[in-house]
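Exercise: predict the fold of this chain.
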Amino acid sequence: STQGPALSVHTGIEVLRQDASEFRVQVTNIYQITDDGWKMILHHASPVQSVKPPSRLESKVH
């Protein structure tokens, strides 16, 4: 049989602030268990795009 390493995957949103600005990033962290405990083996972050919700239609479609 084959056995892979024990991994833990965490995802989330990090909020970074500098002066009056605020930035959000989607993050993924992957950890692997070792003889010395859990070690981060991957960290990835991508900017979250701000999407303005569509405005409501003023007139009926049908």
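Check your answer against the key: The radius of gyration is 20 Å.
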